[in-house]
Design a protein that fits this description.
GO terms for molecular function: DNA binding; N-methyltransferase activity. One of its GO terms (biological process) is methylation. The chain is about 45% helix and about 5% strand. It is mainly α. Strands 3-2-1-4 form a 4-stranded parallel β-sheet, covered by helices on one side. α1 packs antiparallel against α5 and α2 runs antiparallel to α6. It starts with 5 loop residues before the first helix and ends in a 12-residue tail after the last helix.
Length: about 300
């Protein structure tokens, strides 16, 4: 296959942005971007042998255009089959049901998005742009993703090594873990054997992280959705990276405060510290770091 030029990729970018904008007029921008992420995910994962009866990406590409064409149902069917569940041990927490349903009248932009995404082999840049768009869509609620340049700076500061266990307790879309994987891959020139773990409080964002890793071919474990400040992971890790949340008053829910005996120390005593998730998360990080290694965590 002939390599794609910059102009060809720019054209795909423009088409995806245009049809995403069209889709966002029929639903909110946040959900429209998540649907585009879902299509990017399907383009890399929805593949099966012919005749198996499984909805695939090629089957989706063959759906006709036009209102009433059935592509809305086809997209939903494909996503329902291929999207990852939250955790193999937690069947009651099924993030597949969190993907937005394509609204009536979206047949045109959906078909165009499938064709545009299917026309390129370089979905990485499209994925990066979608994650930036998604972060911008939800930034007003202080729920954002770590920008790429900040992720590179933070990972470079802690210098991860191959075979390290790396945890992001507030992983968002998984950007810091993706950057940790890239950092090692560029240095060992092999697929890293490090263990990447992430946890995210919001179920739909946890789903985004799983799709992000899958599209890039990165093996990572995302824990079931939960609050790392209230219930930190117990397994030790060599490196803990986190871009901490802000504008959140309580460092742990009230019902968790009654379980102080289970903590390795009291909650922050000053009002400012108690109201800061940064102080609580820093305490939890120290508890989750491997006893055989130093605490190596970037704090912004």
């Amino acid at each position: 296959m002939q390599a794609e030029g910059a102009s060809s990729l720019d054209e795909v970018f423009a088409k995806v942005r245009r049809h995403r904008t069209h889709l966002s007029r029929l639903m909110n921008a946040h959900d429209a971007t998540r649907l585009v992420l879902g299509l990017l995910y399907l383009s890399r994962t929805a593949h099966a042998a012919p005749g198996t009866g499984v909805p695939t990406w090629s089957w989706l590409q063959g759906q006709p255009a036009g209102r009433g064409s059935g592509i809305r149902a086809a997209v939903s069917k494909c996503l329902s089959h291929w999207l990852p569940v939250a955790d193999e041990q937690s069947a009651d927490v099924d993030t597949r049901s969190l993907m937005p349903v394509p609204p009536p009248g979206s047949e045109g932009p959906l078909h165009a998005l499938v064709q545009a995404i299917g026309s390129t082999q370089r979905v990485g840049p499209l994925l990066d742009q979608c994650l930036r768009d998604l972060s911008a869509d939800q930034a007003d609620g202080s729920h954002y993703f770590t920008p790429g340049d900040m992720a590179r700076l933070m990972v470079g500061a802690v210098v991860p090594r191959d075979r390290h266990r790396v945890l992001d307790p507030v992983c968002g879309s998984g950007g810091l873990l993706v950057e940790s994987h890239r950092y090692i891959r560029e240095r060992v020139e092999l697929n890293p054997t490090m263990s990447l773990h992430g946890k995210e409080q919001h179920a739909h964002t946890s789903q985004v992280a799983r799709m992000n890793f899958a599209v890039r071919g990165i093996t990572a474990h995302v824990f079931p959705p939960g609050d790392s400040l209230a219930e930190p992971e117990r397994e030790p890790h060599d490196i803990i990276l986190a871009n901490l949340p802000f504008n959140q008053r309580d460092w742990a829910p009230e019902d968790k405060m009654e379980q102080g005996a289970r903590r390795s120390g009291p909650p922050p005593s000053t009002p400012r510290a108690r109201g800061s998730p940064r102080s609580g998360c820093w305490t939890n990080r120290r508890r989750s770091t491997s006893p055989n290694g130093a605490v190596r965590a970037a704090r912004w």
